[in-house]
Write a sequence for this structure.
């Protein structure tokens, strides 16, 4: 019987301790709230700063000059194919001191210019053309 009574007391003491600890934690959390908010705010600011840095790096990369090998890698073509396109003036390039240079933004535009229109886009253009001819 003594053991059972002791267990009940220890359980009640543990419950009381847990309640007191929870109240202390809540009080501590309330007191520490400005610090916690500051930490969270700093984390969010760091995340935003890294996003801005990534965007700025991407913009800087578009104005990057590439040599023939880098251009071939970027366009997933071979070096001889790049030279062939340069000789046919199919691809934008700059030449200085017998060396070829390619601006990454020009290469991106070159790729975009080769886009093939979908059937619905062609039909829409045809309809627009026909309606403009009827007005005249």
């Amino acid at each position: 019987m003594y053991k059972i009574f002791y267990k009940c007391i220890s359980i009640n003491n543990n419950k009381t301790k847990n309640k007191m600890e929870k109240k202390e934690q809540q009080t501590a959390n309330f007191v520490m709230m400005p610090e916690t908010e500051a930490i969270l705010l700093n984390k969010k600011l760091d995340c935003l700063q890294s996003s801005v840095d990534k965007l700025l790096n991407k913009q800087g990369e578009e104005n990057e000059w590439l040599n023939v090998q880098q251009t071939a890698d970027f366009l997933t073509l071979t070096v001889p194919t790049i030279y062939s396109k340069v000789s046919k003036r199919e691809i934008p390039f700059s030449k200085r001191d017998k060396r070829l240079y390619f601006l990454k933004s020009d290469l991106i535009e070159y790729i975009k210019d080769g886009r093939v229109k979908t059937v619905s886009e062609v039909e829409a253009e045809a309809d627009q053309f026909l309606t403009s001819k009827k007005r005249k």
User: Anything to note?
Assistant: Helices lie at 2-62, 68-75, 79-87, 104-113, 119-135. The chain has two domains: 1-62, 63-136. Residues 1-9 have pLDDT under 50 and may be disordered.
